[in-house]
Amino acid sequence: MKIALLDDYLGLAATLVDWSPVTSRATLEVIDRPLPDVETAAAALAGYDILCTLRERTSFPGELIKKLPKLRYLCVTGKRYDTVDVATAAMQGVVVSNTPVSGAGAGAVAELTWGLILSLARNIAFEDRHMRQGEWQHGAGYTLRGKTLGVVGLGGLGRDVARIGQAFGMQVQAWSPNLTDARAEEAGVTRVSKHDLFATSDVVSLHLALADSTRGIVDKAAIDAMKPSAWLVNTARACLLDEHALIDALKQERIQGAGLDVYSVEPLPEDHILRSLPNVVLTPHLGYFTQEMLTAYYTYAVENITAFLDGKPIRVVS
After folding, report:
1. Residue 171: enclosing H or E segment and its boundaries?
2. pLDDT tens digit string along 228-273?
3. CA 197 → CA 173, 203, 318, distances in Å?
4. How far apart are alpha carbons 13 and 297 in whole angstroms?
5. CATH architecture of 2-98+291-309
6. Catalytic pick from 55, 159, 207, 237?
7. Out of 111, 127, 266, 303, which one is annotated catalytic?
8. Domain locations along the chain
9. Region 103-282: CATH code
10. From the candidates 55, 159, 207, 285, which is the catalytic residue?
11. What is the pLDDT of residues 85-116, one digit of tens each?
12. Do 2-98+291-309 and 103-282 have matching folds?
């Protein structure tokens, strides 16, 4: 069988785990470039029996799955598989498995979230760029202690971000469509309405899972409600918010700035306007992208693929 590891841009997969249980039984190849559309992906992947994703970098809509007649097994790294048309895969005889969530995952995303918040508050990226040009101070930053952190989505990751905010001495409030007073109290935060969270928070950080019910949930009205001095941070999913409304607010300086790790199109196009805005800190979808997290993903992937080769697939989703 032929197996492809997808979207391993940096060639890390082969260095992090032992693939010999797989390579002793099949041909393993790495695809180190983005596959931005169905036709490109179909042409690149048509010859493989087994595919292993790196999170959601390559989507598998039904149209693509139907163009891969040799495909028999799809191993999705990460717990979520909403970018895979599982029903069409089943109809095509393709087994789909996912991998568990490692503790390193939530920690990695929470840490990056706070990296973005601190960079915004203390102008770290901005000052770094100017220091490298031989310059000195350009502005005073802001102290987070005493300010208000608004957490949108109080699951495990949101709670981690909230706890760090509390350690900084911030007032923490939260909102999500299903958040209850009891869950908020358990996390030591205040539950508020969606409008009040956006209108009163100094930092808004998004941590909702993407679903039909949450797509576009941070709409223009929510962004327009933010204080001119506020920052918005998104390390969750780009489609949670109205990207155009956010860009307009940043261009017109109706909010102070944003820290973004996720985008509606990835990789972010070279000429995208976000790359030129001075009040944005950008990272290239690094939330989960740590040595520890990738090691966990690929360790589980070796287990999954070996089990499939044995005829006993594990962690099968439906």
Report:
1. strand 171-175
2. 999 999 999 999 999 999 999 999 999 999 999 999 999 999 999 9
3. 7, 10, 36
4. 9
5. 3-Layer(aba) Sandwich (3.40)
6. 237
7. 266
8. 2-98+291-309, 103-282
9. 3.40.50.720
10. 285
11. 999 999 999 999 999 876 666 689 999 999 99
12. yes
